[in-house]
Write a structure and sequence with these properties.
- This protein is globular.
- By secondary structure, the protein is mainly alpha-helical.
- It has helices at residues 5-9, 17-24, 28-36, 64-75, 80-88, 98-101, 107-118, and strands spanning 14-16, 43-45, 48-52.
- A three-stranded antiparallel beta sheet has the order 1-3-2.
- The protein has seven helices and three strands; from the N terminus they run αβααββαααα.
- The two termini are 19 Å apart.
- A hairpin with a 2-residue loop joins β2 and β3 (48-52).
- Helices cover 50% and strands 9% of the residues.
Length: 119
C-alpha cells in the first residue's frame, strides 16, 4: 500500500479533460461539472488533470459503479488521491484491482467494501 500514486497510475491509460469531453460528446465545461459533482475524479500531475480511461465502460460512458464507488469513498472522507489509490491498488481478496472489479461481476462487492472501509 506504500506504492506511490504516480507508480500505480504510470501504465494506466489517462485522458485529458478535452479527451473526456470528446469521449462523452459534451463541452469541457460539463466535464468540470462532472468533476465538481464527483461523478469522476482527476489525478493532478503538474499543471494537468488526467482522468483514468478505466472510469469509462465499453460504450464510452462513465461507469455507474465507478461513480458510485467514488461517491461512497468521498462521502467517507477519502481525498481524490486516496480514492485513486484505493481503486487502482491490487486487492488479492477480490482478486485484482477494485477498478477492474467495478466493470464486472464484482462491482457490488467492491462498492460494499468501499462502504465498509469509508466508515
Amino acid at each position: 500500500m506504500d506504492e506511490s500514486l504516480e507508480t500505480l497510475l504510470r501504465d494506466e491509460p489517462m485522458l485529458t479533460l478535452p479527451q473526456v469531453a470528446d469521449k462523452l460528446g459534451i463541452a469541457v465545461t460539463r466535464v468540470h461539472d462532472l468533476l465538481n459533482a464527483k461523478k469522476i475524479i482527476a489525478w493532478r500531475t503538474g499543471d494537468k488533470k488526467l482522468v483514468p480511461a478505466a472510469f469509462f465502460n465499453d460504450k464510452d460512458a462513465i461507469s455507474k459503479f465507478v461513480s458510485g464507488a467514488i461517491t461512497v469513498l468521498s462521502d467517507g472522507g477519502y481525498s481524490e488521491n486516496e480514492i485513486l489509490r484505493h481503486l487502482f491498488t491490487e486487492d488479492e481478496s477480490l482478486p485484482g484491482r477494485p477498478i477492474d472489479g467495478l466493470h464486472g461481476h464484482l462491482a457490488r462487492e467492491v462498492i460494499r467494501r468501499a462502504q465498509a472501509s469509508a466508515f
